[in-house]
Specification:
Elements: H1 14-39, H2 53-75, H3 81-113, H4 121-145, H5 151-187, H6 197-221, H7 231-245
Helix pairs in contact: 1-2, 1-6, 2-3, 2-5, 2-6, 3-4, 4-5, 5-6
GO molecular function, one term: metal ion binding
Organism: Vidua macroura (Pin-tailed whydah)
Membrane topology: Multi-pass membrane protein
């Protein structure tokens, strides 16, 4: 810094947990690709392999990218709040776009093969999670990214946004676990109980999903690892409160 002050640092242990989360995330993506490539024939859009785009997109979008979007406020602790908000919203938006591709893939694959839609517990939980996630994204952009909401309204909605953000992340992982189990029972029901390599690999993917969720959840719930407000952010908040509610900062 120009005044000779030491550069800001992250709390002890935070960087290590974030690094572990990224290692787990990349490993679960690689494991998903290995499962689909080695045992399910790979991924192709206009072919019988179109369905395989579904698990790949859901793990990438609804788990890995969603988890990283939640970690943005822990990792970028000293950057401008506006930039951090924009990155948070961008990652969530990218996760939604990729997940939508996965949903289109499964519906088109079902239609081609004459398979009924939306009858399983996995499909119910998965679709509900996606719709609520989309709603959460729109509300978050409306309240926090774009101007308009009053200071008190933002203050009221923020705890709801945080709660539902973590809840939807948990539901996303749970839906993936249901999907893995459903796919295994459809594809290898006769041999699954004999500890065949595909079953072991898919079970490993499930364990990695849970581990990724636990590490991300731990980082998010450590009170001392929350992003501290910068001095200029506190001043802007007071100005915003004055402008939107017509009262002085000390009122």
């Amino acid at each position: 810094a120009m005044d000779g002050a030491p550069p800001p640092t992250s709390p002890t242990g935070l960087s290590a947990y974030v690094a572990v989360s990224q290692l787990l995330g990349l490993t679960l993506l690689a494991t998903t690709g290995a499962w689909l490539g080695r045992y399910r024939g790979g991924v192709a859009w206009h072919s019988p392999l179109q369905f395989n785009a579904h698990p790949l997109c859901m793990v990438l979008g609804m788990v890995f990218l969603q988890g990283d979007a939640l970690l943005v406020y822990r990792v970028f602790r000293h950057e401008a709040k506006r930039s951090t908000k924009a990155l948070h919203a961008l990652l969530h938006g990218l996760a939604l776009a990729i997940a939508l591709v996965g949903i289109i893939a499964v519906f088109e694959s079902h239609r081609t093969k004459g398979i009924p839609d939306m009858y399983s517990l996995h499909s119910w939980c998965g679709m509900a999670t996606f719709v609520l996630y989309l709603l959460q994204w729109f509300l978050g952009c409306g309240f926090f990214l774009f101007p308009g909401a009053s200071f008190s309204l933002r203050g009221w909605y923020k705890p709801q946004h945080i709660f539902f953000g973590i809840t939807l992340f948990i539901l996303s992982i749970a839906s993936c676990l249901l999907g893995i189990t459903e796919m295994l029972l459809f594809k290898i029901s006769d041999s699954y109980s004999h500890f065949v390599p595909e079953g072991i690999l898919a079970n490993t993917l499930g364990v990695l999903l849970v581990a990724f969720g636990l590490v991300v959840g731990y980082v998010l719930t450590r009170e001392e690892w929350k992003r501290p407000p910068l001095a200029e952010e506190l001043a802007l908040s007071m100005d915003f409160k004055t402008l939107t509610e017509g009262e002085s900062p000390g009122g």
